[in-house]
From TrEMBL:
Annotated ranges, domain P-type ATPase A: 105-204
Organism: Mycolicibacterium parafortuitum
Residue stretches in coiled coil: 614-641
Family stated for the protein in its record: Belongs to the cation transport ATPase (P-type) (TC 3.A.3) family. Type IB subfamily.
Residues annotated as transmembrane: 28-46, 51-68, 220-239, 245-266, 548-572
GO molecular function: ATP binding; ATP hydrolysis activity; ATPase-coupled monoatomic cation transmembrane transporter activity; cadmium ion transmembrane transporter activity; metal ion binding
PANTHER family named in the record: CADMIUM/ZINC-TRANSPORTING ATPASE HMA2-RELATED, CADMIUM_ZINC-TRANSPORTING ATPASE HMA4-RELATED
Keywords associated with the record: ATP-binding, Cell membrane, Coiled coil, Membrane, Metal-binding, Nucleotide-binding, Translocase, Transmembrane, Transmembrane helix
Database matches in InterPro entries: ATPase_P-typ_cyto_dom_N (IPR023299), ATPase_P-typ_P_site (IPR018303), ATPase_P-typ_TM_dom_sf (IPR023298), ATPase_P-typ_transduc_dom_A_sf (IPR008250), ATPase_P-type_domA (IPR059000), Cation_Transport_ATPase_IB (IPR051014), HAD-like_sf (IPR036412), HAD_sf (IPR023214)
GO cellular component, one term: plasma membrane
UniProt protein name: Heavy metal translocating P-type ATPase [Saccharopolyspora erythraea NRRL 2338]
Superkingdom of source: Bacteria
All residue ranges annotated as the Hemerythrin-like domain in the record: 614-750
Subcellular localization: Cell membrane
């Protein structure tokens, strides 16, 4: 670049001073400087079995020397050097986000043993070590917060700019940055087995490999090269002037043009990495961009992949919160996945756990321990216990209807409550499915090893086209291969059992934030954050990048052909043609860099204050969701007996509605919905939700009237029971549906699944 520009500038200065011969020598020297690398590029392409348009560059450079058009040759030389330099700069810019992952990799850790803190090499960290994470440190290994709330910047992994608070006992992934004060981390994995090490390995493999669309550009050269030679020869024969032939070859030198396609692909890889998606190659990005079938695992992909407490049923006279506290206190010492969910739920509710003694765990039965002088057992019912009590039968029915796992809590051998758990659907899942449909996916298939009933329930909510339940890994591979024979197929999974199916798909996508190493290694694309909607982001990025790559190639070739026609008719001399071709090539490469930005048609830009509102109301939903059970419990008590206890329960429900739920719904109506009208481009987007608010208010008013009538009559009258039951059960159903709709349609715009 320096030499060719220097030769052009020196020749221009000599020409201005009247030294025409010196000017020609300088320009000829610049042309010769470019011929050497241009020939090397052609030879390199021939060794790879390709005959690209670099050959035209060599012919045009040699042609300008032959006919004495030294200025044109020097301009072509600058164009070639400038195009290569621009491509190199574009690639560096496009891949800087991938390189940033490698540059941020921690090299050491601070380990505390007693009162001593020592700095050790990262490879010396072992699971169980207590590490000190100073402000600004990159967390070196996966672990759990040990001593205080940690304030973390997770943007490098998730793309989310807002800081996240992780309480004591919560998991922390390696690679995030401590954005608050120092805290202690109990390591749960070595550096090699931690999240960030896996992402770094993937980043090392990600790069600007030639995608099929780049080979498409080479296929363009298959007809463009003979067309250029034909037009140059025709111009020479028709006019008898070799200068015209050279002019045609000059404007037919689109070397940077064919670099525009890989620049667009590399830019797409870069943009994907910024939103938490590592794509191994340009080929995977291009295939993702025109896929039409999506096959998904259920557990851990469409669902959260970890059980959560959905209900606590207590015996009459026992508080549900106390049942959960007892269960969590005993389960603190258990490694069972359900025990972890119970402890997490109790901690989230702020319950004070007791330290158990004489703890004993029996595989397949549960855990028992002594708490405050009583023996508490958490797990299955003992062989001598029966579920004949009404409350126990109610708990069993709820578990069966909700496809939930059940954990019984017994005190001194007497069942006193039950905790119901299930793997919830990701809040992002319904909206993600709609986005994938709009992005061109016309067939959505779910594969799961789970039973048919819960699988059908998920498929109904998400509107899937096909469901295969009780699938073994071999069954999944067969199903993916069958889909791949029909169309370009993407497979999404997270477990070790998904690895073969991921490898069998056209494009394998692994949920890598918590997924198994085997699935990540088998995948072409890895979502480094635990958010399903990043799959839709990756699809949008892939389609946008491919669109820009093809657009840049086609537009550039069309402009070149038009310029060649003008040169063939003598309307464009070689020097002017070289300048014009320079402008064409630079413009298409700059256009290819647009792939670094999002497609404006798919973006839903959220103002900062609107996003803050969404997070605020989402947090209120999390708090209110636990209280909805009070509405159903009131109805259940009323069914059993419309006595004073039932009336007292309905009173509590009425207070809950007046003091918490109705104010929340009114605030949404007056504050959140108007704010959403701007990014959603219409107030109609929230109109149906407003109608639901009106129905919630109507049912709440009706329940309040029933409470007044019952208090005036000294109790619930028989004629009130049916309508009051309809109001309570109806309100419970409406609120649950309304919460789900808002979370999926609106809160999902701002909320991270990992915090759901």
């Amino acid at each position: 670049m320096v030499l060719t520009v220097g030769a052009l500038a020196a020749g221009g200065l000599a020409w201005l001073l009247g030294a025409r011969t010196v000017a020609d020598i300088c320009w000829a020297a610049g042309t010769l400087i470019a011929v050497v690398p241009a020939v090397a590029w052609v030879v390199g392409a021939l060794r790879q079995g390709r005959l690209g348009v670099d050959l035209i560059a060599v012919l045009s450079l040699v042609g300008t020397l032959w006919v004495g058009e030294y200025l044109a040759g020097s301009l072509i030389a600058v164009m070639l050097a400038g195009g290569r330099a621009l491509e190199s700069a574009a690639s560096r810019r496009a891949s800087r986000d991938l390189k940033a992952l490698l540059e941020r990799a921690p090299r050491f850790a601070r380990r505390r043993v007693g009162d001593q803190v020592t700095t050790i090499a990262l490879g010396e960290v072992a699971a169980g070590d207590l590490l000190v994470i100073a402000p600004g440190d990159v967390v070196p290994v996966d672990g759990r917060v040990a001593d205080t709330v940690a304030v973390l910047d997770e943007s490098a992994l998730t793309g989310e700019p807002l800081h996240v608070e992780r309480p004591v006992g919560d998991t922390v992934r390696s690679g995030v940055v401590n954005a608050g004060g120092a805290f202690e981390l109990k390591a749960t994995a070595t550096a090699e087995d931690s999240t960030y090490a896996g992402i770094v390995r993937l980043a090392q493999q990600a790069g600007a490999e030639s995608a099929p669309v780049v080979r498409l550009a080479d296929r363009y050269a298959a007809f463009f090269l003979p067309l250029s030679l034909l037009m140059a020869g025709a111009a020479w024969l028709a006019s008898g002037s070799a200068v015209r032939a050279v002019a045609v070859l000059v404007v037919a030198t689109p070397c940077p043009l064919l670099l525009a396609a890989p620049v667009a692909i590399v830019s797409g890889l870069s943009r994907a990495s910024r939103v938490g998606v590592v794509i191994r190659s340009g080929g995977a990005l291009e295939n993702l961009g025109h896929a039409s079938t999506l096959v998904m695992d259920k557990t851990g992909t469409l669902t959260m992949g970890r059980p959560q407490v959905v209900d606590v049923v207590a015996a009459p006279g026992t508080d549900a919160g106390e049942i959960l506290r007892l269960a969590a206190s005993v389960d603190q010492l258990s490694q069972h996945v359900l025990a972890e969910a119970i402890v997490t739920e109790a901690t989230a509710r702020g319950l004070q756990l007791s330290m158990p003694t004489d703890s004993a765990e029996e595989a397949g039965r549960g855990v028992s321990a002594t708490l405050d002088g009583v023996r508490v057992t958490v797990g299955r019912l003992s062989d001598t216990a029966t579920s004949t009590d009404d409350w126990m039968q109610t708990a069993l029915n709820r578990a069966r209807l909700d496809s939930a796992a059940m954990v019984w809590v017994a005190v001194d051998g007497e069942p006193r409550g039950a905790v119901l758990l299930r793997d919830p659907l990701r809040r992002q899942a319904p909206r993600t499915m709609r986005r994938l449909r709009s992005a061109g996916i016309d067939r959505l298939v779910m594969l799961t090893g789970d039973r048919a009933e819960p699988a059908r329930e998920v498929a109904t909510v998400l509107g899937l086209d096909e469901v295969y339940a009780q699938q073994t890994p071999a069954d999944k591979v067969a199903a993916v291969r069958a889909e791949r024979e029909r169309a370009v197929t993407v497979m999404v999974g997270d477990g070790i059992n998904d690895a073969p199916a991921l490898a069998a798909a056209t494009v394998g996508v692994a949920m890598g934030a918590r997924g198994a190493t085997a699935s990540s290694e088998a995948a072409d694309v890895v979502l480094t954050t635990d958010r399903l909607d990043r799959l839709a982001d990756a699809m949008d990025i892939a389609r946008w990048s491919r669109h820009i790559a093809v657009q840049s190639a086609v537009v550039g070739m069309t402009l070149s052909v038009a310029a060649m026609a003008a040169a063939a008719f003598g309307l464009l001399p070689p020097a002017a043609g070289a300048l014009l071709q320079e402008a064409i090539d630079v413009s298409v490469i700059l256009n290819a860099l647009r792939a670094l930005r999002a497609n404006p048609r798919t973006e839903v830009p959220l103002p900062a204050d609107t996003e803050a509102l969404l997070r605020e109301f989402a947090a209120e939903h999390d708090e209110l969701r636990d209280t909805l059970a009070q509405i159903r419990d009131s109805a259940d008590r009323l069914v059993q007996r419309p006595d004073a206890a039932a009336l007292d329960s309905v009173r509590r429900t009425n207070r809950l509605l007046i003091e918490r739920i109705l104010p929340h719904e009114r605030a949404e109506e007056t504050t959140l919905y108007p704010a959403l009208a701007v990014p959603l481009h219409s107030g109609e987007a929230t109109a149906t939700m407003s109608r639901t608010h009106a129905e919630i208010q109507r049912l709440a008013d009706r329940i309040g009237t029933h409470v007044q009538l019952a208090e005036q009559a000294g109790g619930i009258e028989p004629e009130q029971v049916d309508d009051l039951l309809a109001c309570l059960y109806g309100l419970y159903a409406v609120l649950r549906l309304h919460f789900s709709q808002e979370e999926e349609n609106y809160f999902a715009l701002a909320q991270d699944d990992a915090d759901s």
